[in-house]
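Worked example

This section walks through a single chain of length 73. The input is the sequence exactly as stored; nothing has been trimmed or padded.
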Amino acid sequence: MTHSRITLEPGKRGGRPCIRGLRISVYDVLEMLAEGMSEAEIIEEFPELEPADIRACLAFAADREHNLYTLAV
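Given that input, the structure is written out below as tokens.
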């Protein structure tokens, strides 16, 4: 399950969703992807990340978007 890679800790990064307890937030990864960085470039910059972490960020964002839309309807 991809969401098991996403952690929430109140004292870390202001409680933002992070990856596997690291100080790398879902937002950080999504921002890098939006800037055009490839998965390989992100992992090169943050070698502690795994390809599955990046996919988990995308899945997490998709689920959040779906939930926001569902609540608005």
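What to look for: The helical segments are 26-34, 39-45, 51-72.
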